[in-house]
Amino acid sequence: MGLGPSIKMTTLHHYRCPLTEALAKEKDIEFTGIIVDGVSEVCDDKIYTAKRVGDMAQMLRADAAIVAIDAWGNHHVDFVNVIEQLGIRGIPSVGLSYIARQGRLVCTNQYVDCVIDFNKSESGYESCVVGENNLTDYDAMKAVALVKNKLRKAGKPVSETELTGEE
Fold first, then answer.
1. Which InterPro entries does this one have (predicted)?
2. Whether the Cβ atoms of residue 26 and residue 88 lie closer than 8 Å to each other
3. Which positions ≥6 away from 24 have C-beta within 8 Å?
């Protein structure tokens, strides 16, 4: 459970990551970097690595974060823990995940308040077609707009832009 070819992001997808491209183009957001965190099998390890991600984001003085994952089930525990650790440190976040009918969150917390579902299949189930249900340019554009909205609510200076993908 949680692994399927339609939601897995291929190497080519990572080289041309829509989220990285959208953030790099943003003039209002200082794109500090990417933290890559693996998925642990042991609950204590999940908590430990989530805390380290929170610590790194805090040390980088991140004002907000976008958390993306390309699986569900057990992987969502790591995803939710990272969002929680960011929230505990006052760093608002926007999540991106496959949810649909098949990949609903197995846990949550008070900080998981904004998750974009990148399911593309009408049925809401894993289609087994490589890359069919993963992060797209439009999903990335929504995530950037939502994180900018969270920054505005936190009193950070961010200009108004439309969801066009262009400035």
1. Gly_reductase_pB_sua/b
2. no
3. 31
Question: Per residue in 69-103, pLDDT tens?
Answer: 988 888 999 999 999 999 999 999 999 999 999 88
Q: What is the spatial distance between Cα 21 and Cα 89, in angstroms, rounded to a whole number? A: 26
Segments making up each domain of the chain, as ranges: 11-153
Rounded Cα distance between 119 and 6, Å, is: 9
Structure-token pair, residue 22: 């959208």
Buried b (16+ CB within 10 A) or exposed e, 156-167: eebeeeeeeeee
Single pTM value for the model: 0.89
In sequence order, the 6+-apart residues with CB closer than 8 A to the CB of 1 are: 72, 73, 74
